[in-house]
Each structure stands twice: as C-alpha cells, then as structure tokens.
Amino acid sequence: MERGLTTMTLRRLALIAVTALAIQGVAFAYYYDDLLFLRQPVDVVASAPPDVFRAHALTALGRTRLTRRHLETIAAAAERQRASDIEVRAAERLAREHRGDVSARLRLADALRRAGRFSDAETLYLDILGRPETTTP
User: Fold this and answer.
1) Phi, psi (5° rounding) for residue 34?
2) CA dist 45 → 33, 42, 52, 130 (Å)
3) pTM of the predicted model, to two decimals?
C-alpha cells in the first residue's frame, strides 16, 4: 500500500512540475514576444506585415536592454520596410551603445540620409571621415 501511495505522489509531483514549466514557458513567450520575433532572420522579419513589424520593433525599442543583434535586425528590417523613423531610432541606439564602432555610426548616417535628414547625415559622415565640417551652398 505504501509503495502505491509513493508512486501516486511522484506522479502528481511530476504532473505539477510539467504544468508549472508549461505555464512558465507560455508566460516567457508572451512577455518576450517582441524579442523572439526579432530573433528570426532579417528577411523573415522584413517580410512581416508593416503593422506587425512596427508593433514588435517599437515594443523592443522601449526596452532598457537590447542586444546588438536585435538592434541591427530592427534597423535592417526597417530599412527594407521603408520605416525610416524606426530605422533611425534603432541606428541611433546602436551607435550610442557602441560608440567606437564605425560601422554603427555609418549605419546611423545612412539611416539619417534615407530619412531625409541630410544635414545630420553629412555632419556624421564628415565626422567619421575625420574632416572638419564645411558649409554647403
């Protein structure tokens, strides 16, 4: 009788553990939906409907901490979707968080140019080249 009770208790414990893990997995997927979406290849993210991409990107950009990969994915997908406001935000954050990285600064300059912010882009390009600013006619 005691062995049957132990087996029954172990089964219940296992069932409770599996249920708890499933609930935790669902909660994780819900809370990190934006980051999980952005872990996909850029081609997949960029081919998402614009409203889906925008929602995930803006939620992610609202987070305190993002990986470089997430920021680069957001910027690249935004460029392909012609969402210049999101591209600039992601590129600005990338350049700010990786100050010494020339490629991050070039990405920002390119994003600014595509967004029509030519003066800001020119200033950044010249800074990257190490040249003093010139007055454009």
Assistant:
1) -65, -45
2) 13, 5, 9, 35
3) 0.78
